[in-house]
Amino acid sequence: MIDRRAPGPRSRRKTRGALLGPAPVAVAVAVAVAVAVAVAVAALPAVADAPTGAPPIRAPLTSSVVDPAGRTWLVVPMGILSQATNTFWQLFVRPPAAGAGWTLVTPPGVADNGGLVATAGAGGLQVAVLPSQDLHFSPLASTADGGRSWSPGLVPAALDASPDALAVAGSGAVAVVDGGRLLLEESGRSGSWRRLRSAADLAPTGAAAECRPIAFSAAAAGPDGSVVVATACHRTGQAGLFELAASGSGAPTAIRVPVASGSRARTLRLVAGDGGVAALLALGGRRGDRLEVATLAAGRATVSASFRLDPGESLVASGSVPGGGIFVLLRGRRGAERLADERLGRWDSLPVPPRGTVAAAFSPGRIDAVTVHSSTLIDYTIDAGAAGWRRAQVVRVPIQYGSSG
User: Fold this and answer.
1) CATH pick for 2-312 out of 1.10.3470, 2.120.10, 1.10.8, 3.30.1360
2) Model confidence over 289-326: pLDDT tens digits?
C-alpha cells in the first residue's frame, strides 16, 4: 500500500503559482462578456420539457479521460457528499509510466462545490468549475504540464452540469451553457467567447426537422476542426447528433444513427478518440432500457451491441477507453456495482469492483477502481486476465470543511 499525502492548500498555491481568480482587468472583461451573453440568452426561447420515454439514467460528472500524452485524469467528489457545501470535487492525474500512482492536482483558488468538467486535447487539459453559491459564470483553468501549473480563464456563462459540456475543438474550445440553450465558442484560446449556435437555431433546419431538438447536452471535437453536438429530441427514433463546420457557418449535418422505431434516445456522453467520436446512448422502448455506443467516423455511425440495464440501475461514472470506446460504472438498487466497457462494437464485463466503488479509469495496460471515504481515496487495480482487484494506493486529501459557507 502506498500512502501519498497530498500537499495542503497553502503549499499547493505556492507550488502552482497564481490562483485561478482572474486579475482585475480580466474580471472587468469577463463581466462585460458575461453581460453580453446574458442578454443573448435572455432573448432565446425557453427550453421545452424533455420528452418522456427515454431512460431516466443521467451521466454524472464523475469521469476519467486519457490525454494524447498518455496521462490519465480522474474527476471525483470527496468530503461529505450529503452536504453540498462540504462536497469538494477533486482532480487527480496519473502519468503513463508503469507503476505510477495518482497525484492530486485540483486547480486552487475557486470553490468547486458545484463540480468540475475536464476535457483533454493536444495542448493539455482544460478544467471548468461549475457555478455554485453566488457564482454565475464558470472559471476555467488550463495545464500543459500534467497539472504542475495552471493558466486561468473563464467561460462567461453557467456551464451545464454534464461531463461533456466543455470540449477542446480546433484552436479553441466550445461550451454548452445555460441549460443547453446555447453553444459558445472560444477563439484561439484568447479568452474571447462568441455565440456559436442556439438549440433554437437547429429546429427549423432540414437536418434537425426529424429530431426537433430541445437543448444541447454534450459536445466533442470532430474531424477537421468541426464540432459534434448532441441534443435531446422531441421525436422518437432519433439520436439527435449533429456536426457543425469549423467556421460555425452553414447548416448543421445530421449524423444518422439507427434507433429502433418507437425508442426514445438520450445521449449521455460524447468522447473523442482515435477512431472517431463515441456517443454513449441510453435507449428506452419495447425492448427495455439499454445502453449502446455509436462510433461516428467518416460521416457515418457504427452502432455497438446493446447493453441491458437492470430496473433501477444508475450510472455512477463513465469515461474513455484507450484506442476508442467508453466504459460505464453502474449501481443497482441494492448497491451492487458492475463495470463494463465497449470496444469495437462489443461490450465486456469486468470482475465485480470493490464495494462502494464511485469512479474508475481505463489507461493503457491498466484499469483502476476508486472508493472514497470522506477525504481518503483508495485505488484498486486489476491486471489483465486476473479474477480480482488489489489495493494499490491510498491518497489522503486535506479538506477544509465549512470553508464554503
Assistant:
1) 2.120.10
2) 899 999 988 778 899 999 999 988 999 999 999 888 99
